[in-house]
Amino acid sequence: MASRELISYDKGVAVKVLKWASPIFLTFYLVWSLLPLFIMLVASLKDLLDAFSVPKPGDWAGVTIFFDFSPTLTHYVALFTENGFGTYLFNSLVASIGSAVIAVTFGSMCAYSLSRSEFRGKKDLLFWIISTRMAPIVAVIVPLYAIFRSVDLVGTLPGLILAFTTFNLPFAIWMLKGFFDGVPYAIEEAAQVDGQNRFQAFVTILPLVAPGIGAFVILCILFAWNDFLFATIIGSGGAKTLPAATKELVQPQNIDWGKIMAAGIVTTAPMIPLGLLVRRYLVAGLTMGAVKE
Amino acid sequence: MTTRASSEGHPALSDQDWGFATVDQKPEIYNPQPSRMFYVYLAMPAVLLLAAITIYPFLWLIYMSFHKVGFGNASDVFVGVKNFARLFNDSKYLQGWGLLLKYSAICLSIQVVAGVSLAVILNNSRHEKILVTLFLMPMMVSPVVAGLLFYYLYNGTFGWYHWIFQSLGILDETSILGSADTALYGIILVDVWQWTPLITLITLAGLKRVPQDQLEANMVDGAGSISNFFHVSLPNIYPFLLIAVLLRFMDNFRFIDAILALTGGGPGNATRLLPVYLFDVSFKFFKLGRGGAIALTLLIVTIILGMILVKVLEDPARKKALSGDTDG
Q1: If you placed Cys at B240, which of A45, A171, A277, B206 could pair as Cys (CB 3.0 to 4.6 Å)?
Q2: Alpha-carbon torsion, ordered A35, A280, A178, B308, to 10 deg
Q3: How many domains does one find in chain B?
């Protein structure tokens, strides 16, 4: 608290300018950040005529026509009745939850054993794991597509789940290893003294890392849900997800913007609360555990 | 011996000060104990799955890059290093690297300046929590949806952002994506919109760990808050920023979703960054051999970047700075 008092000793002009500029910058950034989302929401509720009306360039007072419309849900209804978005929503749910559960189940077992054992080449193994996560998807998708096609996994949900697992599994292993590193070995030792075997001892400490496991399931769902390249190429045909289906609404002629904006809302809306739910783990998750809050 | 068997791997117990811990390393390797096998079994499913979905495609990629890949019944023809040799004469390939670097440099400069300023303003401010929550919402948007959303906003006849640009006199009738001079900035703005909050979050995490006593000591020496930022806070958050920049740079290799939705590489080749070009070669022209060669060069650069990242992460001094004394 002492520092606060000390800061008030600043009297330079630069400091004064900064004090003035800060709220302006903050307001500007807030608008810049949220305006696109707000426009997407409003455009999804407008009928086509309203959505296409903008004032003349320079006519700042004309902005009010943005709000001059009667809200309609036709685009949402059309998405689910005409475009089959129900199926895509189902595909998105199954593929992202499926891959998240697989990644975290196998990932926690692997992370635990990597955390508790020492062997030659462990560093190399860890680097290999993290590098599979960082590999550009465009670079590996061609061979992956060829392999998936040869075993008839293209256009199927199991295939898509497997494809999402390529980036979720290394993520889960890497993050959960950090979590298990923080659990003292003495707990498992005590469990073993009580007569449990090694696997039971492993299960004993799982509740201690449960918050982490839950958060990483959600982060894996988020990554898989938002993925586009795998979803269009591996999922094309029978397992289209929401982002892929949304992109397909863009046709060379006659782009139905109302529908596209509605599809964007349908894709985005579930992820915002999920993301905020794991807010505490977000930074760690997006920096591969390098930075913790 | 039994105590050792169960305590291996635990950092505190395998420490030298137990005396016997360092004595016999050899038998452990040559005569694996049952407990060691337990770890192997536990790790096996994940490692096998990962190997199947990464090593096999990787080998396939190497094979493809040395062949002219045939279609249907046509068989692959071995062409040696021709696929690689041709890359040096491929202007789009070289231009792709240039654009990728230019795009990343501009994106990252804007993101770091805006993200750090935002973090400094937000740190310990009254509404920090709610504002941070609002700011990070764009990060949850699927990149392809973000691309489509800005595609709509940039539209030359009814896009609201285009209207704003036009009203401010920045653009004439041509939309930002319509001209080769401005299209790159159009896709940069989308990346800035989505990912500046990540830099802000990372910087905030760093600012929370700047030692209070250093700040106070500097101020006792007569420094103001601006000097404090440059001489105390910035050196302290530097490792955080380095990681953020490296990660974002690598993501630019990974994610082309928004660019595919916005321009698909056009107009002309103005936004055909290397990963976008690779996508075209493989999925539009179906030149899988050449695509393999491009993919391999891209992968090698990513792996080198990854090695740098891991080095940065494992540098003991940085590790200490990053984990800090306060944990969350």
Answers
A1: B206
A2: 30
A3: 2
**Which whole-number Å values give the CA distances from B38 to A200, B27, B206, in the listed order?**
12, 18, 39
Q: Give yes or no for a contact between B252 and B75, defined as CB atoms under 8 angstroms apart.
A: no
What's the pLDDT at B324?
A: 57
Compare B276 and B310 and report the one with higher pLDDT: B276
Its ipTM equals 0.90
Which positions 103-162 of A are in contact with B (Cβ < 8 Å)? 106-107, 109-110, 112-114, 116-118, 120, 125, 127, 129-132, 134-144, 146-147, 162
Q: What SS3 class is residue A217?
A: helix
pLDDT band at B31 (very low <50, low <70, confident <90, very high): very low
Task: For residue A271, give the CATH number of its domain.
Answer: 1.10.3720.10
Please check whether residue B250 lies inside any domain of the structure.
yes
Structural tokens at position A168 = 């979720």
Question: Which of A218, A287, A288 to mutate against chain B (most B CBs within 10 Å)?
Answer: A287
Q: Among partner residues A22, A53, A226, which is closest to B121 by beta-carbon distance? A: A22
Mean predicted confidence (pLDDT) in A245-274:
90
- Based on the fold, state whether residues A170 and A133 are members of the same structural domain: yes
Domain assignment present for A291: no
Nearest to A138 among B13, B275, B323 (CB): B275
Q: B77 pairs with which residues across the strands? A: B68
Residue matched to tokens 């989302």: A37
**B153 plus B54 within the same structural domain:** no
| Residue range A27-80, pLDDT digits in tens | 999 999 999 999 999 999 988 777 777 788 777 877 888 887 888 899 999 999
B36's enclosing H/E stretch is helix B34-65
A261 and A177 together in one domain: yes
Q: Is B19 left (phi over 0), alpha (psi -120 to 50) or beta?
A: left
pLDDT, residue B19, reads 46
Q: For residues B96 and B277, is the Cβ–Cβ distance under 8 A? A: yes
Residues B74 and B118 in one domain: no
Q: Does A241 touch chain B (CB under 8 A)?
A: no
Q: Rounded to an integer, what distance in angstroms lies between the CA atom of residue A263 and that of residue A231? A: 16
Chain A residues closer than 8 Å to B114 by CB: 29
Are residues B9 and B120 part of one domain? no
B175 and B280 together in one domain: yes
How do residues A182-240 score in pLDDT, each as one tens digit?
888 888 888 888 888 888 888 888 888 888 889 999 999 999 999 999 999 998 888 89
Taking only the tens place, the pLDDT of each residue in A165-182 is: 989 999 999 889 888 888
CA angle B185, A23, A283 (to 5 degrees): 65
Beta strands in B14-126 (DSSP E): 67-68, 77-78
B83, B114, B149: which is the final residue of a domain? B83
Give the structural domain span for A32: 2-72
Give the domain range for residue B26.
2-83
Query: What are the Cα distances from residue B280, in Å, to A73, B253, B266, B286, B288?
Result: 37, 15, 12, 8, 10
Residues B28 and B78 in one domain: yes
A241 and A130 share a domain?
yes
Lowest-pLDDT range of A132-141, B183-192, B267-276: A132-141
Task: Give the one of B47, B216, B291 whose C-beta lies nearest to A3's C-beta.
Answer: B216
Nearest to B25 by CA among B17, B34, B14, B35: B14
Q: In terms of domains, do B78 and B95 share one?
A: no
A293 belongs to a structural domain:
no
